[in-house]
């Protein structure tokens, strides 16, 4: 039976095994998917061991995405630009890596949240690894502009400089401080890619930026409403989503890379949502 796994630390709460089991059941694929605790000192060895034992593919989650990226012998374009990898597999004895987080976010926005990205103005909060992984796929979806706001401005500026070079002519990628986000600027979609929720915090977006028509998306999810989702609703936003759909969509992309077939994500998201509440 084909073996797959996710490596992370912590890992015990990972939903990947259940998600991939549901995909396998749906598509009648025979495979086993396990969650494995690793460690920075051991990660490389753990991955090498998994593949020498005949393992077919792995997901990689925090804090190993950059290590996986460094260790891969072949990187997809998405992984190259993300500077991090979440999907590994062996092909012709070469360790391949991809990053499916960005396409997972875009697919969730388009297919599950009913969002339009083409021609839209996006505000992205945060400039860490999670954000770096999603900017290019967002640009590829045809949005008109992306403003990256971050507590540490230099990090936002660095990402904006890097990705504006890759944007189509006329498409703007800019950086700013949270306090500089103007309530009068037109924002269609706000995506929270900060890890502020972990500390129960919300990035300080000025009042008036979000209103009823603004679609608000938190890349994090939790079994209760995330602080960002709660804040977005308090600002009057009517369409507010957390990152559970993104989690399932990025998994579906990994599954499709490994198995050549694409799962139907909607019933899996639905099931997970029920199990959370
Ligand atoms: P990840 O891999 O989750 O992106 P990261 O690379 O450490 O993790 O980035 C975390 C992001 O969340 C950063 O943009 C960070 O802002 P700084 O670059 O200024 O550190 C942001 N962040 C974390 N806690 C925050 C908070 N309480 N308020 C606002 N932004 C926060």
TrEMBL record:
It comes from Nitrincola tibetensis. This is Shikimate dehydrogenase (NADP(+)). InterPro entries: Aminoacid_DH-like_N_sf, NAD(P)-bd_dom_sf, SDH_C, Shikimate_DH, Shikimate_DH-bd_N, Shikimate_DH_fam, Shikm_DH/Glu-tRNA_Rdtase. The active site is at 65 (proton acceptor). It catalyses: shikimate + NADP(+) = 3-dehydroshikimate + NADPH + H(+). Pathway: Metabolic intermediate biosynthesis; chorismate biosynthesis; chorismate from D-erythrose 4-phosphate and phosphoenolpyruvate: step 4/7. Its EC number is 1.1.1.25. The keyword Acyltransferase does not apply.
